[in-house]
Amino acid sequence: MLESFDFIANFKFISILVTLLIFFVGLPLLVSRLRVTTLKHQVLSLDFYMKLKTLIEDDFEKNYSTILVALYGYTKCELNQYEILWFIRTPGAFKLLRQYTSCRKYLMVCEKSKVIKLKATYQKKKPRLVERLKYFGLYLLFSLLALIVSISSLYFYSTLIVPFLFFALVIAVFFLVTAFYCLNKSTKVDSAEKLVKVTLPDRVSII
Fold it and tell me: The pTM is what?
């Protein structure tokens, strides 16, 4: 029995060491990878914009389905026809496309000017505050659940067998990921407010 406990303790200790080693070795590689990916993304964005503009200028109606598929792959959001034309033909607007689609729930393109504005539902401060509090409350809830599961796992560390300990850690990670997802969602209102303040250069007519 004692040998079994020693084996479990040693296995857990080795697992922690391996995890820390992977983290410290992998972190510099991850940072380097992110820098390369950012540079590639800038080049690909320009190439994507040029191809998209060509499709629109050739025959927008005929190429509409292709444009939708291409844009969905780029933004994970389905835009209407006017939005597509606005972002492609308005100087400086394309660089805001991903930001716009990430918080499109709160935004709309103003057809009479070169601005992005808040939807009527969110033009007052109260609805925006409610959105922030809703997602921030969920963030606190899931963070608390992750903390409870983690502390419980550490408290019963010596009595839990490896599969149950692993399962508890997976649950804790799930709660933590969900918490940060909700935290990210709570910042979308702020992103929308910042985006409506962006001033674009004079645009050409899209009609």
Answer: 0.68
Rounded (10°) CA dihedral 13, 19, 24, 29? 160
For the packed helices 2-59 and 81-89, what is the interaxial angle rounded to 10 degrees?
80
DSSP 74-103: HHSSPPPHHHHHHHHHSTTTGGGHHHHHHT
**Low-confidence residues of the chain: pLDDT under 70:** 1-44, 111, 154-165, 202-207
Q: Tell me the residue type at 36.
A: V
The first and second tokens of residue 5, run together, are 């406990």
Which pLDDT belongs to residue 65? 87
Least Cα distance to 193 among 117, 113, 110 occurs for 117
Most distant CA pair in the chain: distance in Å? 81
Crossing angle between the packed helical segments 162-186 and 188-195, to the nearest 10 degrees: 30
Residue 157 to residue 93: CA distance in whole angstroms: 54
d(CA 88, CA 70): 13
Centroid of chain to Cα 135: 14
Classify residue 49 as exposed, middle or buried by CB count within 10 Å of its CB (0-12, 13-18, 19+): middle
